[in-house]
Design goal:
Structural class: alpha+beta
Oligomer: single chain
Radius of gyration: 24 Å
Distance between the termini: 22 Å
Number of strands: 17
Largest sheet: 5 strands, antiparallel
Order of helices and strands: HEHEEHEEHEEHEEHEEHEHHEHEEHEE
Strand order of the largest sheet: 14-15-13-17-16
Length: 471
Amino acid sequence: MEEFPTNTNTKQTENLDEPPNSRLFVVTSRSITEDELRESFSVYGDIHGVWVVKDKQTKESKGIAYVKFAKSSQACLAMEEMHGRVLVEGTKPVKVFIAQSRSSTRHRDVEDEELTRIFVMIPKSFSEEDLKDTFKEYGDIEYCVIIKNKSTGESKGLGYVRYYKPSQAAIAIENCDKTYRAILAEPRTKAPVTEDYSGGTSRGDYSGGGGGGSDSSNQYAFPMADHGNYPAIDYRSSVDFTCCLMMSTRAALSQEQVFALFDLIPGMEYCELQRDAYGMNKGHALIRYANLGSSFYAREKLNGFEYPPGNRLSVNFVDDGEDRSSPIGRMAVQFVTTQMMSAPWNGPSSSQSMKPSFPISPMLRIQTDVNLPPLKKLAPPDSKAKERLFVVFSPSPLPPDVLEDVFCRYGSLIEVHLVPGRKVGYMKYSEKQCADDAMAALHGQVVNGVKMKVMLADPPREESHKRPRNF
């Protein structure tokens, strides 16, 4: 729970999320003070408040703080520049994230990718070059897309601009002409549908303007009164399941890395990294499988997977030229769709043919940007637990052997326990310092594409009418 000092201005506390994404969540050393945080972060903008979260009993810092800026662009710039920096000599590097809205019901932090793409309303006469020329003054643009009517090919007067940095997107929203009604394009949290683009590979990982999220606290949604004045947006697409996939990456992957990753799924026939006329990596790769089952499985497993850690892959179906309009072709697609949709991806498969084995090479067993210590032996199973960590996983729990591999490296790990049917687990340690070290190093980190929130577990309730908890 966030704690704020009693002398905090009431009006400021009420407006901590105004404007949106203007508050930072900082993981730092417990010795860092509010004054030191303010001095370090004030170079990036006007600070409205700094709060160090303290233990209610001891009044000591928990090593967590919040920094509120006047503008989203200032907070984003501070996040980009300060993440991984050492504030005071002898202390650990800080971790800096955009804090969730205080009214948010989501159980995850704000991702950088959620902050780099904006949704705009433009004249229907605009070309993609016009769109890029209009918004390039605010930062380096990764791509621009104009939404077009699928039947007529005419512009719908809507477009997307994706920047390389969150601060650039925030500056564009704050400073562009208000007639463009620029907002952040909210990530999609519902069905995996794709956008209607004018050409090239479709990008299906986001939806625009508040049309795809369930977070009622979204500050960037269109005003309700204005909905009737603008054309409705159709995000649905009729992209079929095919044997061909297009992978997009923002990191510079080699042909060998892409091949090794997609070759984990049996049936790969073709894999080629796309290059321009000068031999430069375009950030796309074309992969073809021998059957629909393998391509569907590869897309389900690798779309959104972080490889290397921090680089989220986008994997989507592309037209493979096959004619599936015949009754037999339609039956084949329907069969694969039904079987794959009903397969429990994280549990035992009801059909071995629908869930091929997924051999993980040593190189890919643990993928994370955390500098992990060497492996250490587990503590004896009958050791007394002096500290327990509570871990929340997103989107799903890691396998127990991987968790044991990661958490044992900080010493004195007794055992790992995953709560059946839930995305949480407990790590039991025989030494408190080892648990504290693991929590400090792993909280908020991504391992094998799974984000972990690592916290101290509540002590077991000591009630005479209940059996003592083991976890």
